[in-house]
Amino acid sequence: MPNRPFIVGNWKMNGSRAMLPEARAIDRAAARYPDVSVGIAPPFTLVAVLAEALTNSQAGGQDCHAEAKGAHTGDVSAPMLADASASFVIVGHSERRADHGETDAMVKAKAEAALAAGLGVIVCVGETLEQRDAGKAEAVVSAQVDASLPSAEAISVAAQGRVSIAYEPVWAIGTGRVPSAADVEAMHAAIRARLVGALGDAGQEPRILYGGSVNAGNAAELLAVKGVGGALVGGASLTAEGFVPIIAAASRAED
Ligand code: PEP
């Protein structure tokens, strides 16, 4: 079911083994919504633990290095994530771009490394408030897509159905603010146009997720916006109570 909505929890730098019961509760709930693909990206320390614990959902990483191995103290490579039984990895999150100076070129290299390792990849893009207020949101995000997307060769050879884009306005992350449905629809259409420009017909395939302050109260509305293929969820993914209603909102199944 490649076109299932993809609902992904980004635990950021939160979580210890004490959160395993939450992950298990999310996983049990995911079984009730087989028309939704569910993922949790915990800190590296928990990837293998979660991958072992989850049966109806996938574990993923929040970042990977572009190289497979070598002298990069503190980094984790895509093959290492695959070895830990991760199914996907998030790359280019705005917190990584801001905290670690990650450029589009670095994000692209990481995304290609992820695909080469057999992982799914979620490439994050999004404008700052300053850029939006200056009327540059679409130009900024389009440029990020163009420069962060794995090459057409990497996608066609390795990765049918394994690439997603997450549109995450930086000003909406962790703030409780969300763009209007019209702005989300317009940006998702702009991103789709860039994907088709880069990949031809294959550019219709990648899911485009929305991320930024998604919660139980606004998920149904955001997920119903034309072109939204799922959600990347931070704060609300840390508990089953917060995350499961978002999965339910993505499903057509009756509860
Ligand atoms: C995120 O970190 O990707 C995110 C969308 O966070 P939040 O849902 O907390 O805004």
Explain the layout of strands and helices:
Blueprint: E1 6-10, H1 20-30, E2 37-41, H2 44-53, E3 58-61, H3 78-83, E4 88-91, H4 94-99, H5 104-116, E5 120-125, H6 129-133, H7 137-148, H8 152-158, E6 163-167, H9 181-199, E7 207-211, H10 219-223, E8 230-233, H11 240-250
Parallel strand pairs: 1-2, 1-8, 2-3, 3-4, 4-5, 5-6, 6-7, 7-8
Helix pairs in contact: 1-11, 5-7, 7-9
The structure holds phosphoenolpyruvate (PEP).
Compose a concise summary of this entry.
With 255 residues, this protein is an alpha/beta fold. The chain has helices spanning 20-30, 44-53, 78-83, 94-99, 104-116, 129-133, 137-148, 152-158, 181-199, 219-223, 240-250, and strands spanning 6-10, 37-41, 58-61, 88-91, 120-125, 163-167, 207-211, 230-233.
- Strand segment count: 8
Name the CATH superfamily assignment. Answer: Aldolase class I
* Average residue pLDDT: 95
The 3D shape can be described as globular
Please give the share of residues in helix: 40-55%
CATH architecture: Alpha-Beta Barrel
User: What is the H/E string?
Assistant: EHEHEHEHHEHHHEHEHEH
Helix count from the secondary structure assignment: 11
In the sheet with the most strands, the strands line up as 1-2-3-4-5-6-7-8
CATH class category label: Alpha Beta
Please summarize the sheet with the most strands.
8 strands, parallel, barrel
